[in-house]
Amino acid sequence: MRLLAAAFLILSAAVASAVAPNRATGLTATAIANKSIRLNWVAPTTEGAPAADGYKVYRATATVTTPVELTTTKITQLTYTDNSTDLVVGTNYIYTVVAYNGADAASPSDPATASPLDLPGAPANFRVTNTGSTTITLAWNPVNVTGVKYTVYRDDEAVGENLTVTTFTDTGLDLSTTYSYVVTSTTTAGESADSNTVTVTTFGDGSGKEAAFAKRFRQIDIDANGLLTLEEYVAGHGGRLAWVVVDHRFLYSDTDESGDLNLSEYAKALGGRKYMSPSKARQFYLADLDADGELDPTEYPLIRGARTKQAVLDKSFDKLDKDESGGISPEELKIRNYAPPTQ
Question: Do domains 11-114 and 208-271 have the same CATH topology?
Answer without folding.
Answer: no
